[in-house]
Write a structure and sequence with these properties.
The structure holds two protein chains of two kinds. Chain A is mainly beta. Chain A has two helices and eleven strands; from the N terminus they run αββββββαβββββ. Helices cover 14% and strands 44% of the residues of chain A. In chain A, a hairpin with a 2-residue loop joins β1 and β2. Chain A starts with a helix and ends with a strand. By secondary structure, chain B is mainly beta. Chain B has one domain. The chains are: A mainly beta, B mainly beta. β5 of chain A pairs parallel with β1 of chain B, so a sheet runs across the interface.
């Protein structure tokens, strides 16, 4: 009888440890034309349309209760915010070109230490993955802003 | 008969379209990024006014020692000619990046003011020997900010060579992931 009690106690304590580990596990995955788009960023989440989105506002389920956004007229760069992978079993093509194009003047992309620009192109081989960073230039008026970007996928190397 | 041919053509057309898609020449999708633009004291790397000389002017941190400051009490219109003022804890810099939620994510903050502007900045408390506890006075200082441990920034105004009237300088703040090297 005593043994059973001990067993129950152990289970309970494991549960408590589990609760103590960070609540936020943020790996968001999206499939765009067979290409896997992943983000480990805490600012990434799934949108209502079930697409990967970056949301730096208190509406993001990962919002920790501090840091409500970006301040006026500031520039923020988030390294490796989006990771693109050519999952050949889904794309069916060994070499592809992924092009990320900003549709918003306050939104730019970059790879490595390169200067951010409106368009970034990455060539992905078989099951290869590469990451890109996001630069956000905040506007000079307060409130929620939404910027759009387009992901283009072509077969073959980037031109 | 003519009608049937028309339908057949349509089916061929559809098949062509589907196979072109399956050949994967081109794909496109739109995604969004949403950002809340907020005041300096609420952002990811936030700047909180501490002294009444510092305030938020339409969301932007401003340090103003003149009757134009909304905190101006009606006395002490400014600083006099040929004096040096040291203000500790003018504003605090906090690290409110969400990355701190599941890891220790310090940042290195650099604050600059123009050279020869008669303004110097420092971090921490000011010592009698002219040094400061976190970063010594200068026109460009660097210090590490951990989450939950705001760093106070102080100002030195050396008005020795300044003429009467109003003077303004811009302050530039930059931050990088990781502690300062």
């Amino acid at each position: 009888m005593r043994k059973i009690t001990t067993a129950v106690l152990v289970i309970l304590s494991i549960f408590a440890i589990g609760l103590n580990t960070p609540v936020v596990s943020t790996i968001v995955e999206d499939i765009v034309g067979g290409v896997t788009v992943i983000s480990n960023s805490i600012y990434a989440t799934m949108s209502n349309e079930n697409n990967l989105t970056i949301d730096i506002s208190a509406n993001n389920p990962n919002y920790p209760g501090y840091g409500k956004g970006l301040s006026l007229s500031s520039t923020y760069r988030f390294d490796d915010a989006l990771i693109f992978e050519n999952n050949v079993s889904k794309t069916g093509i060994e070499v592809i070109c992924v092009q990320i194009q900003s549709n918003d003047e306050n939104l730019k992309f970059y790879t490595g230490d390169a200067m951010p620009s409106d368009i970034v192109s990455i060539t992905l081989g078989k099951n290869e993955s590469k990451s890109i960073g996001i630069e956000i230039n905040s506007t000079s008026d307060l409130g929620l802003k939404e910027g759009k970007y387009t992901i283009y996928i072509y077969s073959g190397e980037c031109q | 008969m003519k009608k049937l041919a028309g339908i057949l053509l349509l089916i061929v057309g559809l098949t062509l379209a589907v196979s072109a898609g399956a050949n994967f020449r081109y794909y496109q999708a739109d995604r969004t990024i949403t950002v809340n633009i907020t005041s300096d004291d609420n952002e990811l790397i936030d700047l909180d006014p501490v002294q009444p000389y510092a305030y938020l002017n339409n969301g932007k941190l401003t340090i103003e020692i003149s009757p134009n400051n909304p905190n101006y009490p009606g006395y002490g219109d400014g600083m006099s000619h040929n004096t040096t003022y040291v203000f500790e804890d003018m504003f605090n810099v906090s690290n409110d990046l969400w990355e701190n939620e599941d890891q220790n994510f310090p940042i290195c903050v650099q604050i600059s003011v123009p050279q020869n502007s008669s303004v110097e900045i420092f971090a921490g408390s000011y010592n009698d020997d002219g040094t400061a506890t976190i970063a010594n006075p200068g026109t460009q200082i660097q210090f590490t900010v951990e989450h939950g441990k705001p760093v106070p920034v102080g100002f030195i105004f050396d008005n020795t060579c300044e003429t009467l009237g109003s003077h303004s300088v811009n302050m530039d703040i930059q931050a990088w992931a990781g502690a300062c090297k």
